[in-house]
């Protein structure tokens, strides 16, 4: 395996990690506020569909982005209605939203475009253009560093850079702002937050708004990357992001590393159908299952312990 | 304090929730420019209009009875088993291995053996998440989701590399021997003078599902174990004080749940396909969630909900054929049913409680 191949795999890992990272951060905000979000998958799918549809009709991915974010937000608010306002089971609501997205995207897609649930393919301004960072061509000639800059760091879409910027931003919001402190508190002990005179309901809804926007970005990215929406295109990424979230122990920087790892696994799996280690061949299915297996091992507490926010999954009932 | 009479809780609330779910489903049909009334007619015709339709409806219902009971057993212990899909997949593997192991002379021998195979493999796939929940505190919802994906990868590997017939282009196992063929409805009912379409899939497994429904009722409400499961589900601390070991209940409830999901394979793998194919479960494991929620985890409720979803599934197929509404409409209905009967329960309950409280106050005044 030569240097350029490694760079290409890493480059593809970055591309694949982008939607995972955005979705993982979405889950991070929501679960840190005490709202478990199994519905990430559904939001991703809904956003990808609306983004793909809007971009196909208008020819602009930026309008697609707006539609994707709005769709994801709508799903997020539905989750809030069920799990915050009506104090329903957050897990059940999330599961329902996933099915709702899986069904609605195909039913509506078929009715709009008559393409068996797909949207027309996107081209030109219908997709995000890749940003070539300054001097990437000139620097490409410098050995070792040059190709790395050109292949790996330059030439991604705006959303990839945004996703990576979102990591320090999320860290700052969560750990350095008043809002973040309250958000974390409401996920650990909503009763205390309520006693301090801060609205638990409003905080949790704002967390879901952030989660909705982030999932909307991730879904739009998927639609742009694949040049259109196809049925079930999120393909379990919402669940992998959930796995990454546990892997990351609900922390922003760890989320970056976890999603990069899962992106890398996917990139390797895409490039090599099976990997031979001496006489033993690792089948491609094993590579596909690896993120899930790793998550189960982490969850089992054999490699460090993942402790979720204490009040996550519980609806808050105000005392009279 | 009882705010509502028992019948309202058991019948009225689910009924209103389901009506709401159907109302919104109708809205979706209307929004995509189709006529909901025509859609319902097409579905009813397709599901009940012919013996073939009825057979398909009952065939799907059989799947959903198994997965619905699976979700319900776990739910009685307050465990949310989303892994029915993976457990049913592995059940299919168990059934396949049993059916291909020996040239079975007759289905009466093959069926019990296959049931053991399916149940064992399904239970085994549920055991790891159960053990992790009981002993290591990992959340069962996350682990069962992960195990669905791991199961799909495992089965994909086994189908392409191990079970596939050499030289064949399709990724499926060898056909089961003649002796492992389960009688379908046309063979069962022909001696009674009832003619069923010979190519339709409903088979012996339907009666096994009914038997399981009855056994489920015995287990949950008439046995010591069932009492312990319910006690644990109501309150873990109370159960502990009563001397019930939480870890034991978690593991046993999940084993039964996985076994029931695995048993589904005698219907779809042994009864219908008669070989193991890719994606044999087709989401039935997930529909079990909707069925259990809608049926309030009670066997009779589950039976009715499974029949309803069987109807929706078969009717949905007809809908895509005649009205060009995609089959995914059923997934939308399933989602809405889960949403309204599961997560938005309080939306219906709160106003109803107020009404009943107001009514009872009026009565007291009169008295």
TrEMBL record, chain A:
Subcellular localization(s) per the UniProt record: Cell membrane
Membrane topology of the entry: Multi-pass membrane protein
Lipid metabolism among keywords: no
Transmembrane segments: 12-29, 44-70, 91-113, 158-175, 207-230, 250-268, 289-307
Phylogenetic placement of the source organism: Bacteria, Pseudomonadati, Pseudomonadota, Alphaproteobacteria, Rhodobacterales
Source species: Celeribacter halophilus
One cellular-component annotation, GO: plasma membrane
Protein name (Swiss-Prot/TrEMBL): Nucleoside ABC transporter membrane protein
Annotated InterPro entries: ABC_transp_permease (IPR001851)
GO molecular function terms listed in the Swiss-Prot or TrEMBL record: transmembrane transporter activity
PANTHER family listed in its UniProt record: GUANOSINE ABC TRANSPORTER PERMEASE PROTEIN NUPQ (PTHR43370:SF1), SUGAR ABC TRANSPORTER INTEGRAL MEMBRANE PROTEIN-RELATED (PTHR43370)
Keywords assigned by UniProt, alphabetized: Cell membrane, Membrane, Transmembrane, Transmembrane helix
Automatic annotation (TrEMBL), chain B:
Domain of life: Bacteria
Pfam families found in the cross-reference section: BPD_transp_2 (PF02653)
Native source organism of the sequence: Celeribacter halophilus
Key words, A-Z: Cell membrane, Membrane, Transmembrane, Transmembrane helix
GO molecular function, a single term: transmembrane transporter activity
UniProt GO cellular component terms: plasma membrane
PANTHER family membership: ABC TRANSPORTER, PERMEASE PROTEIN (PTHR47089), GUANOSINE ABC TRANSPORTER PERMEASE PROTEIN NUPP (PTHR47089:SF1)
Location(s) in or outside the cell: Cell membrane
Glycoprotein keyword on record: no
Name this protein carries in UniProt: Nucleoside ABC transporter membrane protein
Membrane topology: Multi-pass membrane protein
tRNA-binding listed as a keyword: no
